[in-house]
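Convert to structure. Protein one:
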Amino acid sequence: MAPEVIVAGESSVYDEKADVWSIGITAIEMAECAPPLYDLHPMRALFMIPNNKAPTLAKKSKWSKEFHDFISQTVNKNVKKRHDSKSLLQVCLFLLLFVLCTFRLYLLLLSSCSTPLSQV
């Protein structure tokens, strides 16, 4: 959940940039076989998301500069600096990169996660 959604309350408004945050978090989860803060109680994690720095990939050397850039553009805690869906789509390589990374991450997920998919 995006930080602005957590702290929004009922009177605040947020936009599609919260969904862009979710894309970045999903990419991290696929890369690392677990979402950021997975080891914490869910309520504790919700409290920490707005207060912690933006999540990054743990094994930096394992991933390309482009993938790191994608993560930093999608999980930027400053909503005004976070890319919106239109600006991400305007980057020609975004779709190709996302599709290729998703496929590669899916293959890595299959080969490196400890829980077999048949048990999920």
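Protein two, convert as well:
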Amino acid sequence: MGHTSPSTKSSILAAIGCWAALVLLALGATDLTVGFSWAHTQNVVPVAKPAERVTSVYLAGPLGFSEAGRDFQERVLLPELKRFGFEVINPWKLTEQGKIDGILAMPYGEARRDAWRKLNVEIGRNNQDGIDRADAILAILDGVDVDSGTASEIGYAFARNKRILGYRGDFRLSADNEGSVVNLQVEYFIRASGGDIVSSVAELEETFSRLKQ
């Protein structure tokens, strides 16, 4: 795409998720019903009925890429989700770390590139299966713009009728306009699923308790 801005990339990925949702609807993969309060008051297109009870949560986000992110994930987020009584599906644990370390240890060249190409498919499939197994998604929205992989997972999760909760503890502006918190399409998928966007870990328990009802 050349020198595409982060905001444009996120918009494109969110649009891909939208197309995925439309394709699944066209294939009859959903049982349509009216969404939750926000979706109803905003007169959005009805969404499919999600799982009646939330017992498992897929943790979507880029936290595993950095030391600080991993610390926050392991020390704060994962213990909190387990304290709420959820089975946590952590995509950073779905693929054997040894496979990744093995490629990282390889010298740069065609063999390493080909190894990554093969493993990338496995990682993507494992993450897809994790979303399919989960009742709900907790998406980490921090950053100047929503992480592109996270935006894709949000779009896919919406198409698969999952409830989505967004967490953005980052106070920087990251939206198309002052009417949204993050990219408008990403935010639409979250709220139309029956979820919400919170700005602190302290809000997670109350918000998840509403999803579990």
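The chain has two domains: 6-93+135-212, 95-132. The helical segments are 6-26, 37-41, 67-83, 97-104, 110-133, 148-159, 184-192, 204-212.
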